């Protein structure tokens, strides 16, 4: 049971590791798919994903949780969707336009580190020595990925601005994770995720309308739509199912700790698929971020065990 759980989570993380690579491929315009705008990629990802999850909600008979969530906590969940989907992925895809897929993946992988940091401040969750060491390593890795140790003209560089946007996206997603935890426990992760995607999709639709971004979609090639479907249905829809099905079979802290693989996998995929160079700075940054993720997630299981032991005593 646990073995299958780890395989499911590994499959999900592998899919998640391709998001920045495929997004960069679409947004750069260098491939056969042609160029797709950042807002269009973000919007279609979650519109397609929400459409994919709706039948799943009905099949699993979770529609009543959806209705209850809207009635009791509609405004709060709308705000979560605005932050966790619209703001997060507007920033992420805008940042991808001026950075490499490798850099974007390493920086956005910081979100588990930001999550435990915010949880320690807002929810007063204890991190412990290894947790704080993980936060420090993660932040140092992000610093290396953002700056590349090249400080001359740093503030005027497009890649620096793009990296900052992605760092803000990681922080926004972490905030969504922390504040959305109680709603996921109350109404179920599937219902809350669908509502977040629905709210985010509506905001993206409004943004596209204001920017007159709909007409571009009529010119997309079949290969472009294929990759957009991959981003929406495979990485978000199926990736979500694999991840949460896996977490049902293994201890949550151990399952989440596998996220340390994401920056490393994304780096290798970007190098193989897009030919992005494996620079020493980025390798060092990805190693530090991965180590930070591992340190901030693994100790949490020990903390839960200690708390449970104290309650028994």
UniProtKB/TrEMBL annotation:
Pfam families: EamA (PF00892). GO terms for cellular component: membrane. It is a multi-pass membrane protein. It is found in: Membrane. Residues 4-146, 161-297 form the EamA domain. Keywords: Membrane, Transmembrane, Transmembrane helix. SUPFAM superfamilies: Multidrug resistance efflux transporter EmrE. Belongs to the EamA transporter family. PANTHER family: EAMA DOMAIN-CONTAINING PROTEIN, INNER MEMBRANE TRANSPORTER. This is EamA domain-containing protein. It comes from Candidatus Solincola sediminis.
């Amino acid at each position: 049971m646990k073995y299958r759980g780890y395989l499911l989570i590994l499959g999900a993380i592998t899919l998640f590791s391709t998001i920045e690579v495929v997004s960069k491929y679409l947004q750069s315009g260098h491939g056969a798919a042609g160029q797709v705008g950042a807002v269009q990629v973000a919007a279609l990802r979650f519109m397609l994903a929400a459409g994919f999850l709706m039948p799943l909600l009905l099949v699993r008979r979770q529609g009543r949780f959806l209705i209850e969530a809207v009635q009791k906590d509609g405004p709060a969940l709308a705000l979560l969707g605005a932050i966790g989907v619209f703001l997060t992925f507007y920033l992420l895809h805008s940042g991808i336009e001026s950075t490499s897929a490798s850099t974007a993946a390493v920086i956005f992988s910081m979100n588990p580190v930001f999550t435990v940091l915010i949880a320690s401040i807002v929810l007063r969750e204890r991190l412990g020595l290894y947790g704080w060491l993980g936060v420090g390593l993660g932040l140092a890795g992000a610093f290396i990925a953002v700056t590349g140790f090249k400080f001359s003209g740093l503030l005027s560089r497009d890649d620096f601005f793009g990296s900052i946007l992605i760092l803000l996206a990681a922080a926004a997603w972490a905030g969504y994770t922390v504040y959305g935890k109680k709603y996921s426990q109350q109404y179920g992760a599937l219902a809350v995720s669908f509502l977040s995607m629905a709210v985010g999709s509506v905001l993206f639709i409004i943004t596209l309308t204001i920017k007159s971004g709909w007409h571009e979609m009529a010119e997309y090639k079949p290969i472009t739509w294929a990759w957009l479907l991959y981003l929406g249905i495979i990485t978000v829809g199926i990736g979500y199912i694999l991840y949460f099905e896996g977490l049902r079979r293994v201890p949550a802290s151990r399952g989440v700790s596998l996220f340390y693989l994401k920056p490393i996998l994304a780096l290798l995929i970007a190098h193989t698929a897009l030919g992005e160079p494996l620079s020493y700075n980025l390798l060092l940054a990805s190693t530090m971020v991965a180590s930070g993720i591992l340190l901030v997630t693994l100790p949490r299981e020990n903390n839960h065990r200690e708390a449970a032991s104290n309650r028994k005593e």
